[in-house]
Amino acid sequence: MDVVAPLPRPAAGDLLDGFSLEMTGKDVAALEAARPAIPDGTRVNVTFLGTEDTELRLAAVRAVRRLGLVPVPHLSARRLRSRAELEAYLSALRDADAADHVFVVGGDPTVPLGPYDDALAVLRSGLLQEYGVRHVGVSGYPEGHPAISEPALWSAIEDKAAVLREEGLAGSVITQFGFDTEPVLAWLEAVRARGVDLPVRVGVPGPAGIRRLLRYAARFGVGTSAGIAKKYGFSLTNLMGTAGPDRFVHTLAERHDPGRHGELGLHFYTFGGVGATSDWAAAFRTGTHVPAPAPATA
Fold first, then answer.
1. Residue 235: beta bridge partners?
2. Cα angle value 43/60/118 (rounded, 5°)
3. N or C: which end of the chain has fewer CB within 10 A?
4. How many domains does the chain have?
5. pLDDT in tens, 110-139
6. Lowest mean pLDDT among 167-176, 177-186, 285-294
């Protein structure tokens, strides 16, 4: 029987080395099924959604650890109702041997539910180090935030980087996902010009239905013009089917200049498709992935 040799590993495959994934508390079964395609030690961020309770989040965190992966629990500042609630969650994470890495985000509520107005307030609480946190991820927004001004976003990332240095905590940035590399690369240059040298994981949507991608894009203020959609690999006039990040990743790898953009990696927003994203990443890294054809345009 003829043996089909794998395609040569694309240069962009290097960008996937050490990639991270995102899951919700409800994705445990999907993560278990996808585990054979996920490299040992991969970081898996566990979200802090208002629709999920603490036990569901902790069950997901424990599952990530049990599967030989690195849990990165989210702490949503404005969803925390008290200092005691934050301490209780950090204590539970420490008991689960899952407190080394956390990701601190402001969160969705317009009005904080407790004493923490933003991610910076959690970083300044002093509690992270007390409960064994060593590495903290924070957010970056290359295309801005629908509810936060650009000056406030710049102040926030500069202040968070400074606090991490002062507290002796390792850190990194995970960006909001997008469909266009141009604002990402421009934002990276601006970040470095402001003296923020934290490693950055560029947010990438995993393969998903086009309608779902557009729904999340609208929610988070991500640009989806016809030109951007075409560059990414789908058409706004044909919303059937799925789209993957092939073009985005290739373009990012081709244009990445470490001297201007600093250290980069990828973070996949799975949008419920943990298995599809893991399979795509495994195939892309080894050069066995066959890209979908370019979309037809009206």
1. 238
2. 70
3. N
4. 1
5. 899 999 999 999 999 999 999 999 999 999
6. 285-294
Q: Residue 105 corresponds to which amino acid?
A: V
Q: Cβ distance 132 to 97 under 8 Å?
A: no
Cα distance between the two ends of the chain: 43
pLDDT at 223: 72
- Asked if residue 165 belongs to a domain, the reply is yes
**In sequence order, what DSSP letters do the residues of 12-68 get, joined into one string?**
GGGGGTT-EEEE-GGGHHHHHHHGGGSPTT-EEEE---TTS-HHHHHHHHHHHHHTT
What CATH number is associated with residue 121?
A: 3.20.20.220
Question: Scanning the structure block, which residue is given the tokens 């601006």?
Answer: 190
| 83 contacts 148 by C-beta, under 8 angstroms | no
**Side chain identity at residue 58, one-letter code:** L
For residue 167, being part of any structural domain is answered with yes
Cross-strand bridge partners of residue 43: 20, 70
Domain assignment present for residue 34? The answer is yes
**pTM (two decimals):** 0.90
Residue 114 within any structural domain of the chain: yes
Q: 105: domain range?
A: 14-286
